[in-house]
Design brief:
Keywords: Hydrolase, Metalloprotease, Protease. The protein is α+β, with helices and mostly antiparallel strands. It is built from nine helices and 17 strands. The protein has two domains: 222 residues, PmbA/TldD superfamily (PmbA/TldD fold), CATH 3.30.2290.10; 215 residues, no CATH class. It has a six-stranded antiparallel β-sheet. Strands 7-12-13-14-17 form a five-stranded mixed β-barrel. A five-stranded mixed β-sheet has the order 10-9-8-11-16, with no helix packed on it. The chain is globular.
């Protein structure tokens, strides 16, 4: 087995310089072909991923990927092409292909680069680059230790879906004909384990994982395995519930899905297609008056921190929800023009959302709910983005007198997202730090639960 480290020594700055020079050459070629505007994205990704199962190594994968995308504009006509081949003839062919596509497309009044005045001019160090000199032998040892700790933690663990470890580095350069050049580099590392308890129809599966920008912040592999075991055996001998309306507490790891549904509804693409239940809702209260969501793109060491978006527009701290009111949409320049608005610096997505907490920790939320359903897993895609109707399979635990009583599955929770958002009673401080959406457990006062 090759024991070469993922990156040794760190040559990322030199590679960024090469990507920047390549971007400039491609922009020059686009101008030479008559493009009125152009933009180029160049990226390199390296990674090491190991999977083990039942004490054996299943896969060891070392990756190095490259991507080059060229977009040109001839007036309001747009063409795009991509390649991973750095040979001069391939680069020239990519630019020619993008130009040929643009010449045959129809005018689109919303097409074009983001406004030059909005380009980022400051590029602070956001502390997102933490490479891990992880070799394959060490990765295998860590993954095996993680799985073994979980498998040995409880005699009821009968099987395993395995343990995995991954380490990745990403370099990217975005440049456009406004003269903007933005360089980014970031890392992400993950260890996870999934286990199976019980036998036959009584089997239950669960797991745990840890992810971070720096490997030094990952949870200990043995602790991850043991937590995976604890979560798995806790789900044994589940019951169903009588159909009815109950308080529902979404644990932190599933609560962020509610924020995801909100983002889908306030994103530009859904809005200009009129496929959103929150169309024309800016300025309206859709959450309780204490509720807030703030975007923190310049957060040091944030999982999705960035000084500029995918179009070079400067990012800035701002509220999405304040005092329960929707303050803005989530827009790139194209969707903003379609809506007659200005980009919010969200081309490519949002950066580090933080949901305001108004309650204590997880145990405090259980005690406050007293009796109801704790949801720890959601299944299916039963959400209608146009109407807001919500219906998803769920599993978790029934809570009585503020204490977990027994596991439940085979149930469906349902409602309408407008009603669910307005019915949020508490957000806990038990934030799941494994996502760029920072939210604790969320208590909804009442939802329909379909069981037996």
């Amino acid at each position: 087995m090759n024991a070469t480290a993922l990156t040794s020594p760190d040559d990322s700055l030199a590679r960024l310089e090469r990507l920047e020079a390549l971007s400039q050459r491609l922009l020059d070629r686009a101008r030479a072909h008559g493009a009125t505007q152009a933009e180029v994205s160049c990226s390199e990704e390296t990674g090491l991923n190991v999977n083990v199962r039942l004490g054996d190594v299943e896969t060891v994968e070392s990756t190095r990927d490259r991507g080059i995308g060229v977009t040109v504009y001839f007036g309001k006509r747009k063409g795009s092409a991509s390649t991973a081949d750095l040979r001069e003839e391939s680069l020239e062919a990519t630019v020619e292909q993008a130009c040929a596509i643009a010449r045959f497309t129809e005018d689109d009044e919303a097409a074009g680069l983001a406004d030059a005045a909005l380009m980022a001019r400051e590029f602070p160090d956001l502390d997102v680059w933490h490479p891990w000199a992880l070799d394959m032998d060490r990765a295998v040892d860590l993954a095996l230790a993680c799985e073994a700790a979980g498998h040995d933690a409880d005699a009821r663990i009968e099987n395993s879906d395995g343990a995995s470890i991954g380490s990745g580095e990403s370099l990217s350069v975005y440049a456009n004909s406004h003269g903007f050049i933005g360089r980014e580099r970031d890392t992400q590392h993950t260890i996870g384990c999934a286990l199976i308890a019980g036998q036959g129809d009584a089997m239950q599966r669960d797991g745990w994982y840890s992810t971070a920008l720096s490997h030094q912040e990952l949870e200990d592999p043995v602790a991850i395995g043991r937590k995976a075991a604890e979560r798995t055996v806790a789900r044994l001998q589940p019951r169903s519930l009588a159909t009815g309306e109950y308080p529902v507490l979404f644990s932190a790891e599933v609560a962020r899905s509610l924020v995801g549904h909100l983002l889908g509804a306030v994103s530009g693409g859904a809005l200009y297609r009129k496929a959103s239940f929150l169309l024309d809702h800016v300025g309206q209260r859709i959450f309780p008056d204490w509720f807030a969501i703030e975007e923190l793109p310049l957060l040091p060491h944030g999982l999705r921190s960035a000084a500029f978006d995918a179009e070079g527009v400067a990012t800035k701290r701002s509220h999405l929800i304040r005092d329960g009111v929707l303050e803005r949409y989530v827009l790139g320049s194209y969707s903003a023009r379609k809506l007659g608005l200005q980009t919010t610096g969200n081309a490519g997505g949002v950066h580090n959302l933080q949901v305001k907490a108004n309650a204590g920790g997880f145990d405090d939320l259980l005690a406050g709910m007293r009796t109801g359903l704790l949801v720890t897993e959601l299944m299916g895609q039963g959400v209608n983005g146009v109407t807001g109707d919500y219906s998803r399979g769920a599993a978790g635990f029934w809570v009585e007198q503020g204490v977990i009583a027994y596991p439940v599955d085979g149930i469906t929770i349902a409602g309408n997202l407008k009603t669910i958002f307005a019915g949020i009673e508490a957000v806990g401080r038990d934030v799941d730090r494994r996502s760029h959406v920072g939210v604790g457990s969320v208590l909804v006062g009442r939802m329909t639960v379909a069981g037996e």
